[in-house]
Amino acid sequence: MSEADAGAGSGAWAVAGEAHRLIAKALAKLVAEDPAVPPHPYLSRHLADHAARGDVLDDAHVPLAVLPWETSRKVRTLLRRAGDAGQRQEWLEAWAGIEPFLGDAGPEARLTSLHLAHHAATRRRTPLSALPATARRLAGSRLTPLWSDWTAADNVLAVTGTVIESLAHTTTPDGRHLLITGDSHGTLRRWETYGAPVGAPAHTHGGAIQHLLPLPDELLVSGGTDGTVRVWHSTRGQLLADAVHRPRTWVSGLTLLAPADGPPRILVAHSDGHLTALDPGTFHVVDTIAPAGRLPSLDAAPAILTGVGLERARGMALAVVQGRRVRVWQPGQDLVQLGEHADEVRAVVDLPAPNKFVTCDDAGNLGFWDVSAAGGTLVAPPSPARSVTALVAVPVDGEPAVVSAGADHVLRVWSPHALRTVGGPLEGHTAAPLALTALPGEAPLVVSAGADRTLRRWRLTGHGSRTAPQVRRSVVAAALPDGPASAAPLLVAVADEEETTLWNAETGAHVTLPLGDATVTAFAWTTAWDGPLLVTAHSDASVQMWSVGPRAGLDLAGAPARRGTLLSHSLPVQTMVAFPDGGGRTLLATGGADGTLSLWDLERQSRLACWDDHMLSVRDLAVVRTGPRPVVVSAGADGTLRRWDPVTGPAGAPVHCGQQGVHAVAAVPAAPGEHALVASGGEDGTVRLWDAETLRPDGDALDAADGPVTALACFTTPAGRPYVAATGPSGTVHLWDVTARTRLTRIVTGSPLGVLQARQADGAEPQAHPQTYPQGRPHGNPVLLAAGRAGLHLFGIDLEPF
Fold first, then answer.
1. For a Cys-Cys bond, which of 146, 536, 594, 688 suits 794, CB 3.0-4.6 Å?
2. DSSP string spanning 517-567?
3. pLDDT of residue 761
């Protein structure tokens, strides 16, 4: 029902939107309290929209129980339009943060993921002792949140299955803006500005689409790595013509040039330096550019192009960049060199001011150029100075500005007048942004597309005057002590790029380890010297041991005591595992980027062995027990698994996993009556299972189907049933029942994960639902730690039938 319909007749509504408020209120009463009960399809499709139109978009009018079934895909946009900050919308905001990443996850997985996201958003660094019982349990959720230190991005428009390499926008005849993307597979897609796809994708059946040029009358020109320039109907996604094809080249530049005394021309540059001019009406090749002259002759190298508006209605000049050289050309004149960059130029963009354009290069420099002055100024961005990958010109608070995207995953806003950055960096992408566009309007928006396969939008109004947000440092290593999940204390060692902290998740107490300048690359926990021992590996290739002490689990008073340093690796240690050898000793296995695996006696601080059989770095280690002695299994960057006996050394031949590279390995606890297994995580997105004694394949691969598997954790439920958990850059934790070889559920976080660890269940009797200790920990269920780009989650997991 529209507002106009609601106000028709003699009973017109006194306040606009009142009808929608009443509708939303009535519909909310129809939602069952149990999130496992599916609501009527009308509720899942339209309830949020009614609430937004009635200005009551909050948790009361869009209840939690409807969110796992929500199908409108508009909640993120509707929330941005809701201006009342006083409205209670914690669950809605948590949902908006993960919804783009949910894909085809079922309602149970959606509810479980929402439960974790809500805890992270509302209870950051809140100890268990401060959590009310209502915050720990949620009917239908498979987890019990224990502790979170997580900062989620809230500007994701969409998640794409491929890497977007070009981005533009167009306007429909009715004035609606659409986004257009070209990807690495040669697919053209159209999107609403709030992230919903429009129509079916269009396929070129060629190379990647790296250039998009919108034209009037709903036309679009694309250039690809197959050397072809194509013409499209931009709002219908219909291919109209292949205008140019130059075999064995790619399209390196595409722009529109409008001379003062002649018709406009589309200019195409190919990777061999050849320039082609097209009539924008017929898309036929033309030989000359008015008022006089042919196209300039370029070097036999890729050229990047943009048209530059000239002052006093003198038409346009052509900015041409090849390698590091920046030149400009006007019809009837010679090429004029303006200057050179320190490194190869990646992008060039026209500025709204006459005669001005901007460039960026692989060394992280921006160049601001003036055609009339025949020169320019190079400016280096703030540290770290890394490659700038894309540019777009956009007004910010009424002033001209340039937004740059960098290989450090960050966007920055620049003032062309002051030649410096304005405001703080714009963070959120988890890989380099590759393309930018600006959406016009009273409050212009910048949309970015990244190698993290996300579309994100950025509101820049007030950017220069806003306080820069606190930078979220990625978690590079994290670990829980060994032992049953219910054992005290529940400590978490966490390291980012700058500091390492030991947290007590039950009390909130914490202490920072005095490590100096060397950052941590890996952790291992064990017991030695009559107490918990934390082992830390560092970027300087050293390994240090820290005695935590018996009281550390209670109050973490004072820093842990350093117990020694182990040195042998020539490059940083990437993985460690500590274990008893059965003879009274505690051993430590370390695997390094130097390709070696070392074995240590921890209490004697002596190296027992060093093996260098891996051709490349050792990425992960696991310990399995199939005989009288434990055996170490290593996963190498050379794509192999290898077994090592602590006494005799290499045990059997290496196994090539066939996973396009192997990133992780974990020991699978044996179910009653079954043999022990080893799991490997691969670049191809699969988890493969192997007989722990022979390393022979055991059954079919388990397919995560959402990117590389870079971390694994294995555990058993209280009933003794083994499970394997896997994650990676997708940010989703997949959980498989090893015995049935079926995926039970998944937990979506929305940000890349690099660390996954399980603390084993304590063997309690199976429970239909997890009980809680006074501290709030789940009784009898395993605890999972997941960490990565956005921070860390710690939660109990219940995989027994509800």
1. 146
2. TPPEEEEEEEEETTEEEEEEEETTSEEEEEE--TTHHHH--SPPEEEEEEE
3. 63
Three-state secondary structure readout of 633-695: EEEECCCEEEEEECCCEECCCCEECCCCCEEEEEEECCCCCCCCEEEEEECCCEEEEEECCCC
- The 3-state DSSP class for residue 212 equals strand
Q: Is the pLDDT of residue 55 over 90?
A: no
HSE-up of 507 (CA within 13 Å, CB side)? 16
Tell me, what DSSP letter sits at residue 778?
B
Q: What sections of 697-801 are H helices per DSSP?
A: none
102 to 71, 179, 732: CA distances (angstroms):
12, 22, 9
DSSP secondary structure letters along 41-74 = HHHHHHHHHHHHHTT--STTTS-GGGGGG--S--
Report the chain's C-alpha Rg in angstroms. Answer: 29
Q: What region, left, alpha or beta, does residue 12 occupy, with left being phi > 0 and alpha being psi -120 to 50 degrees?
A: beta
> What would the pLDDT profile of 123-169 be if each residue is shown by its tens digit?
999 988 888 877 788 988 999 999 999 988 778 888 888 999 999 99
The vertex-124 CA angle with 122 and 127, nearest 5°, equals 110
CA–CA–CA angle 548, 551, 553 (5° rounding): 70
- State whether residue 424 is helix, strand or coil: strand
Q: What is the pLDDT of residues 591-618, one digit of tens each?
A: 999 999 999 999 899 999 999 889 889 9
* Residue pair 340/324 in contact by the 8 Å Cβ criterion: yes
Strand partners, 393: 402
* 564 φψ region: left (φ > 0), alpha (ψ -120 to 50), beta (else): left
State how far the Cα of 150 lies from the Cα of 788, in Å rounded to an integer.
9
Beta strands in 93-208 (DSSP E): 143-150, 156-159, 164-171, 177-183, 187-192, 197-203
613-634: pLDDT as tens digits: 898 899 999 999 887 889 999 9
